[in-house]
Design a protein that fits this description.
The complex is a heterodimer of chains A (about 550) and B (about 280). In chain A, about 50% of the residues lie in helices and about 15% in strands. Chain A has 19 helices and 18 strands. In chain A, a hairpin with a 2-residue loop joins strand 12 and strand 13. With about 280 residues, chain B is an alpha/beta fold. Chain B has two domains: about 150 residues, Rossmann fold; about 130 residues, Hypothetical Protein Tm841, Chain: A,domain 3 (2-Layer Sandwich). Chain B has ten helices and 13 strands.
């Protein structure tokens, strides 16, 4: 007699390690698709970094899950991934992804395994968390893709589908939603592309579905032993003696029976003035990141608690001197009390901003968004109890707000959208007055300052003034293409005309990397010739991608 | 006869007010190279600014010699004045107060009260106005001086400069030095600290942003008892600022004056400023 037919398991689940495998697969797939996603995001200027941002964010997320033990609970994997994404989030799309992962982790909290219904519920939480993070959600973006995928998962789960079927249904719907984005957003329709962030989300869901339904979703009974006690990773500050910049000391503490809180107490004492100090993880495997003047003492104490692995000690005083030597040293505004941290691309901008009194400058701009962690590091480097953060890029706003929430300094984000706004805001900073007064003043100072970004069209396109040929010089004024043509002087002149021409007062040209001073001077003279009443000056900005960034006020 | 009021040429009250109330303004000295001019006597404000714009080096300024004060005090006293109150530019910014004090000692004890306004320009002028009103009510020189002594904390000046250059050349840079660390051309906003020394109040890149900030700074000092507009150079912007300020404070007589050369030489052409007197605590 033939053996009885084995029916597929009706309530198949995935365990923590299966989820982790799925995420590895998603990371690999995202890595393959990274350039393609970047390319989707080039209309009409090359600010395409969605693929890079999502990839680096997921990489940071997974790295944290890799640090868990060999057989973690699904909820623990999700929590680690959410935390890693939170700390490593890059760019707008990265921050939204981190919020999706955070919502998913909330939905999976405490679960050892994930079934169809859990999955659908957690995707719904992920979608809701992403919507909460964005002030004005737009249809046809990663938000609507994830929401539609979550709804498809819920419908499938409600009809009794298996975990694999639920995943497949959500991935299929995600691709349909990606296709719909093409017609939902005018800007995408004209460029003939789909939404880059939505595409990235669909890639992740597909990889998860394939990995989990293909191999990892079957129940693995041997894993059902007594697990850990559900202790969630915690983030707790540990203090460092406040002498100089000290040493950045990072290590893993393996085999300790203590949780993050106890380890913090054993290692740290009671002061809490170190922004960057972290003890993260579960008993048994903790990550410690502490700035201390005496790493040897810290390590001696740590060695009594467990085994030290992956130790890294860096002399921050030297790093600081090197950084200062690279960018020159300007007077730091409000050292010790209040300061401004600015994101800016290029050596020239860094020098200008430090000269204007910025307490710290973070390298970053179009095409290279600093991660939340880098912002936090700069905030710590500013050594100020109160920090005003100038992202100078709309795509960095969420990351900046994230950093503001996580930082142990009091941080207010002044939502500068470009460098001219950021410089106007920095000028309005007053170290003598409180954070909120400064935030309002700086925000007010940004109004009336216009930004012209001059770049080259990478593909034929069109704007309100007509067609754009590939290779044309285009002027993007406050985020919208305002002029295009073959000659930079004429394009900039037209852009200034659109901003009021002679009614403006001060025009400042910041030339990008690779633009020689003579070309910049020609542009300056052309502007003076056309608008004799304007004050025009030019400086070396050193930014990538844009030959000129011009402020007009 | 009543107490008479003396000030110096840096007190930017409209000339008409001084004439009507018999206020004597002793001129400071302006030095262009070898030549010396008496402020607002030998050279007009407009002519001074033209030379300031043309010249490579701004002129230097110096306090009136004690003899000028002595002559004025004696004339007034001989003319029948019961006493003199002599109100001047902040002692930390000019030696005028010390010249006046030397002259007052020369003239005789108790006859002349010298008051350090601890401020400049029309803010000093507001003390002069207060002194005039008190003198016309019949107060003695000592009473007036005592009343004025409580006022400097309520007086102030906030100025938008077109450039830091003149402040730097004049050596009055003080705490404003911190604004120098940039290649970017900026327009500074400055004020005077409690002791009369120059303090930074802000930086902007355009005139319009600077004027807006000036108005904000003034509003932060409300409630106000008096305020006035000072300008250096062309009067257009000053007039516009006076009109909009008058609309903001309809109950106040917003005065306007060109800055004295002494102020102009330190702040430069294009300067626009408010002088103000905050309301006394019992009138808030």
């Amino acid at each position: 007699m033939a053996a009885p037919e084995v029916s597929p398991p009706v309530t198949a689940v995935v365990l923590g390690r299966g989820l982790r495998r799925g995420l590895r697969s998603a990371l690999a797939r995202l890595s393959e698709q990274r350039d393609r996603i970047n390319d989707l995001n080039v209309f009409p200027v090359p600010d395409g970094d969605t693929g890079t941002n999502m990839h680096l964010t997921l990489q940071a997320a997974l790295a944290e899950a890799e640090d868990l033990g060999p057989d973690p609970k699904a909820g623990e994997v999700a929590a680690a991934v959410a935390h890693g994404a939170l700390m490593g989030a890059r760019g707008n799309s990265g921050v939204i992804l981190s919020q999706i992962l955070r919502g998913v982790a909330e939905g999976l909290r405490g679960k050892a395994e994930i079934g169809a219904v859990d999955l659908a519920a957690s995707l719904k939480e992920g979608s809701a968390a992403a919507y909460r993070a964005v002030k004005r959600p737009v249809e046809g973006t990663i938000l609507s893709v994830v929401r539609d995928a979550a709804e498809a998962a819920a419908a499938a789960a409600a009809s009794g589908a298996s975990l694999a079927e639920v995943l497949q249904a959500s991935a299929t719907e995600a691709w349909d939603a990606v296709e719909r984005s093409r017609s939902q957003l005018e800007v995408l329709r004209r460029a003939g592309v789909v939404d880059a962030g939505g595409f990235g989300a669909a890639v992740i869901l597909t990889a998860l579905a394939e990995e989990i339904s293909g191999a990892g979703f079957l129940q693995e009974p041997e894993a059902f032993g007594p697990g850990a006690d559900g202790h969630r990773p915690g983030v707790l500050a540990v203090t460092a003696p406040d002498q100089g910049f000290g040493y950045c000391t990072e290590f893993s503490l393996v085999g300790s029976e203590l949780g993050a809180l106890e380890v913090r107490q054993r290692l740290g004492g009671d002061e809490d003035d170190d922004d960057s100090a972290l003890v993260v993880g579960d008993p048994g495997l903790l990550h410690v990141h502490i700035h201390t003047a005496e790493p040897w003492q810290l390590l001696t104490r740590a060695a009594e608690l467990g085994r030290i692995e992956r130790l890294k000690v860096e002399d921050m005083t030297r790093q600081h001197h090197e950084a200062r030597a690279r960018v020159g040293s300007g007077p730091a505004a409000g050292v010790g009390t209040r300061g401004v941290v600015v994101v800016a691309p290029g050596f020239g901008f860094h020098q200008l901003l430090l000269g204007l009194g910025a307490a710290a400058v973070v390298e970053g701009g179009q095409g290279r968004n600093p991660a939340v962690e880098e912002l936090l590091r700069a905030i710590a480097e500013a050594r100020c109890a109160e920090v005003l953060l100038l992202p100078n890029n709309p795509n960095l706003l969420l990351a900046a707000e994230q950093a503001a929430r996580v930082s142990r300094s009091q941080v207010a984000v002044v939502p500068s959208r470009n460098l001219p706004q950021g410089i106007a805001a920095l000028l309005a900073f007053d170290p003598e007055v409180g954070l909120e007064v400064n935030r309002k003043r700086m925000q007010r100072a940004m109004t009336g300052v216009h930004c012209i970004e001059v770049t080259t069209a990478v593909r034929p396109s069109e704007y309100s003034g007509g067609p754009i040929a590939r290779g044309d010089t285009i002027a993007v004024v406050d985020g919208d293409v305002a002029a295009a043509g073959s000659e930079v002087e004429a394009v900039v002149g037209a852009a200034l005309e659109g901003l009021g021409g002679e009614r403006l007062e001060v025009v400042t040209i910041y030339r990008g990397a690779g633009v020689d001073a003579a070309a910049s001077r020609r542009l300056e003279l052309a502007i003076k010739g056309r608008f004799p009443e304007l004050e025009v000056e030019s400086h070396d900005g050193g930014q990538a991608l844009y030959p000129y960034i011009i402020s007009a006020e | 006869m009543a107490v008479r009021i003396v000030t110096d040429s840096t007190c930017d009250l409209p000339e008409e007010f001084r004439r009507r109330h018999g206020v004597v303004a002793v001129p400071l000295r302006l030095h262009f190279g070898e030549q010396t001019y008496r402020d607002r006597v030998d050279i007009s404000d407009q002519e001074f600014v033209r030379r300031l714009e043309r010249g490579r080096q701004p002129p230097s300024t110096s306090q009136p010699p004690p003899g000028d004060f002595e002559r004025v005090y004696r004339e007034l006293l001989q003319g029948g004045a019961d006493g003199v109150v002599s109100i001047h530019i902040a002692a930390v910014l000019s030696g005028t107060v010390s010249s006046a004090t030397i002259a007052a000692d020369e003239v005789g004890p108790g006859l002349v009260q010298v008051v350090d306004s601890r401020t400049v320009s029309m803010a000093t002028g507001f003390l002069v106005q207060e002194a005039v009103h008190r003198a016309e009510r019949g107060e003695s020189a000592a009473q007036i001086a005592a009343a004025l002594a409580t006022m400097p904390p309520r007086l102030g000046i906030i100025a938008l400069l077109d450039t830091l250059r003149f402040l730097l050349l004049g050596g009055r840079i003080g705490k404003v030095r911190a604004m120098l660390g940039t290649a970017l051309s900026i327009k500074p906003l400055i004020g005077l600290g409690p002791d009369g020394s120059v303090v930074p109040l802000g930086r902007v890149r355009s005139r319009s942003a600077g004027v807006a900030r000036l108005q904000e700074l003034l509003a932060e000092r409300e409630p106000l008892e008096r305020c006035g507009v000072i300008y250096v150079g062309a009067p257009g912007e000053g007039k516009a600022l006076r009109e909009s300020t008058q609309r903001t404070y309809p109950g106040m007589d917003v005065l306007m004056s060109h800055a004295s050369p002494v102020l102009s030489t330190h702040t430069g052409p294009g300067t626009l400023a408010y002088c103000y007197l905050e309301a006394a605590p019992d009138r808030r």
